[in-house]
Amino acid sequence: MTPVLSQNEVFNYGDYALIYIDKRRKILTRLKQGEKISSDKGVIAADDIIGKEKGSQIKTSLNIRAWALKPLILDYIDKSLKRVTQVIYPKDLGFIILMLGLGSGAKVLEAGVGSGNTTALLAHIVKPDGHVYGYDIREEFLKVAKENLEKLGLDKYVTLRLADVRKGIDETGFDAAVIDMPDPWEALEALHTSLKPSAPIAFFIPSIQQLIKLYNALEDFGGFIDIRAFEIMLREFELSRTAIRPSTYMVGHTGFIVFARKIVKST
Amino acid sequence: MTPVLSQNEVFNYGDYALIYIDKRRKILTRLKQGEKISSDKGVIAADDIIGKEKGSQIKTSLNIRAWALKPLILDYIDKSLKRVTQVIYPKDLGFIILMLGLGSGAKVLEAGVGSGNTTALLAHIVKPDGHVYGYDIREEFLKVAKENLEKLGLDKYVTLRLADVRKGIDETGFDAAVIDMPDPWEALEALHTSLKPSAPIAFFIPSIQQLIKLYNALEDFGGFIDIRAFEIMLREFELSRTAIRPSTYMVGHTGFIVFARKIVKST
Amino acid sequence: MTPVLSQNEVFNYGDYALIYIDKRRKILTRLKQGEKISSDKGVIAADDIIGKEKGSQIKTSLNIRAWALKPLILDYIDKSLKRVTQVIYPKDLGFIILMLGLGSGAKVLEAGVGSGNTTALLAHIVKPDGHVYGYDIREEFLKVAKENLEKLGLDKYVTLRLADVRKGIDETGFDAAVIDMPDPWEALEALHTSLKPSAPIAFFIPSIQQLIKLYNALEDFGGFIDIRAFEIMLREFELSRTAIRPSTYMVGHTGFIVFARKIVKST
Amino acid sequence: MTPVLSQNEVFNYGDYALIYIDKRRKILTRLKQGEKISSDKGVIAADDIIGKEKGSQIKTSLNIRAWALKPLILDYIDKSLKRVTQVIYPKDLGFIILMLGLGSGAKVLEAGVGSGNTTALLAHIVKPDGHVYGYDIREEFLKVAKENLEKLGLDKYVTLRLADVRKGIDETGFDAAVIDMPDPWEALEALHTSLKPSAPIAFFIPSIQQLIKLYNALEDFGGFIDIRAFEIMLREFELSRTAIRPSTYMVGHTGFIVFARKIVKST
Question: Could you give the domains of chain D?
Answer without folding.
Answer: 16-71 (3.10.330.20), 76-262 (3.40.50.150)
